[in-house]
Design goal:
Layout (H helix, E strand, L loop, with lengths): L1 H19 L4 H12 L18 H6 L16 H6 L17 H12 L51 E3 L5 E5 L1 E10 L2 E20 L5 E8 L3 E8 L4 E9 L5 E4 L5 E5 L5 E5 L5 E5 L6 E6 L5 E6 L4 E5 L5 E5 L6 E6 L5 E6 L3 E6 L4 E7 L2 E4 L2 E5 L2 E6 L5 E5 L3 E5 L5 E7 L4 E6 L5 E5 L4 E4 L1
Antiparallel strand pairs: 1-2, 2-3, 3-4, 4-5, 5-6, 6-7, 8-9, 9-10, 10-11, 12-13, 13-14, 14-15, 16-17, 17-18, 18-19, 20-21, 22-23, 23-24, 24-25, 26-27, 27-28
């Protein structure tokens, strides 16, 4: 028993030492290439036009183009082949997959920015943030509702499935059955102010407009009906209803100028509506599975959509044309959020990663295994990200199936220690004063310390 414990401690020490060391091509990757790849991919025998014997040749790629993408292993052909992904040709050919610990080294090298040697520089993009760009101006009147109706069905939802926090007021909206509950944030917690009626079934998604004056509620009844309802927050009254679907509206958002509403449905469909007339402007079928997330940019000229297969697309709001397709995630997109300057989009997926996408060209500027548990006995165990949100100052917060809430800096680096939740944190949002508000699987609404 004593010897077994000693071996375990040594193994853990080695694992921690390797994790702290910067992975480089010369020290870590080239020896693995020599062991597994160079028989077929060398200067004299470059199968598929690919030579893996040197750093420059590896970055150059082969006849099909580049094989490594800095910061994005799941968009790197080299990585996809060695993990034997179904969408790539398995390598080495006609042999078992290489050991998980070796795959982990390749992954760390790509995530670290394809560093050549000990003194080499990372090829990851520098992430910058212009705090003054793109963010909506503070309204002259802070929208807080008055004379709300009492909650009819319950004063507490069984599960916090849909949650939105006002960008300017101490106000939290929670989706329930046939109503939206509105809470005021106080020093001691949350005070239930009342409810807004949603007669069409269950609320699946909630969004406040960029100035906080309109609340968008979407939902319905599965395989029966789907609706989007817009509410005047200050008056606590319904403004209009949009869409008339044969299935639930899973997600919706409104543009910053209140001209457009975009929705996502289980029929793999995106629709764009004119708010004033209620007329549908565009019907788009591009996604390959349910559209689970919709989010307008701060300026409102573009919006992002994500689906159950991990696909993300960026669209023009007015013309309905596609701008970018983002494909690094392979599992369901649970949440999308634009940074306040509109130059970065964050995506949260069941793969346990969040990705910061550079909106200049759709490049994944940062890929973070945010809620992925690691073990010395197994390579990884994925525990999906359920929700994320940006603050106006650029701080990012995420919640995951590992029952933690984590905070990240503008560049995707960890800030402080993760906060533990006793129950599953199904939704997380940042309030106007920077507080982390969490909704849970058992219907709790709380502020994390």
């Amino acid at each position: 028993m004593k010897n077994q414990l000693s071996y375990l401690l040594v193994f853990l020490f080695i694992g921690l030492s390797q994790a702290a060391e910067k992975v480089t091509f010369e020290k870590h990757i080239r020896p693995l290439m020599k062991e597994h790849c160079l028989n077929c991919h060398n200067p004299d025998k470059s199968k598929a036009g690919l030579d893996l014997s040197s750093y420059d040749a590896t970055l150059k790629g082969g006849s099909s183009g580049e094989i490594v993408k800095a910061g994005a292993p799941d968009s790197s052909l080299l990585y996809m082949t060695i993990i034997h992904h179904e969408d790539a040709e398995a390598m080495p050919p006609k042999k078992p997959k290489i050991a998980d610990k070796k795959i982990a080294i390749f992954r760390e090298w790509i995530l670290g920015g394809l560093v050549e040697n000990e003194g080499g520089k990372s090829k990851l993009r520098k992430i910058e943030f212009d705090v003054a760009a793109g963010s909506a101006a503070k309204p002259s009147v802070i929208p807080m509702p008055k004379n709300l109706a009492e909650a009819r069905n319950s004063k507490k939802v069984p599960v916090v499935q849909a949650m939105a926090v006002s960008p300017w007021a101490p106000l939290v909206a929670i989706g329930g059955h046939k109503e939206v509950l509105l809470y005021k944030q106080t020093e001691s917690g949350q005070e239930l102010l009342g409810a807004l009626p949603f007669e069409h079934g269950v609320v699946y998604d909630l969004k406040f407009s960029k100035n906080g004056s309109i609340l968008v509620a979407s939902g319905g009844i599965e395989a029966k009906t789907g609706k989007v309802v817009l509410y005047d927050v200050l008056k606590g009254k319904k403004i209009t209803e949009i869409a008339d679907e044969q299935d639930v509206v899973l997600a919706a958002d409104i543009s910053a100028d209140h001209q457009f509403v975009s929705i996502g449905t289980p029929l793999k469909m995106i629709k764009i509506f004119n708010v004033k007339t209620g007329k549908m402007l565009h019907r788009i079928k591009k996604h390959t599975d349910w559209v689970t997330a919709v989010s307008f940019s701060p300026k409102g000229d573009q919006f992002a959509t994500g689906d159950r297969n991990g696909g993300i697309h960026i669209w023009e709001a007015k013309l309905g044309g596609i701008v970018l397709s983002l494909s690094d995630h392979k599992l369901k997109i649970n949440d999308l959020a634009w940074r306040a300057d509109g130059m970065m989009l964050a995506s949260a997926s069941e793969d346990g990663k969040f990705i910061l996408w550079d909106m200049k060209d759709g490049w994944p500027a940062k890929v973070v295994d945010a809620h992925v548990k690691k073990s010395p006995f197994r390579y990884t165990r994925m525990t999906g990200i359920l929700s994320l949100d940006w603050s106006r100052a650029g701080t990012l917060v995420t919640s995951g199936r590992d029952k933690t809430i984590r905070t990240w800096a503008v560049d995707g680096q960890k800030v402080g220690k993760p906060k533990e939740s006793k129950t599953l944190p199904t939704a997380v949002r940042l309030s106007e004063d920077g507080q982390v508000i969490v909704g849970t699987f058992n219907g709790e609404l709380k502020i994390m310390p």
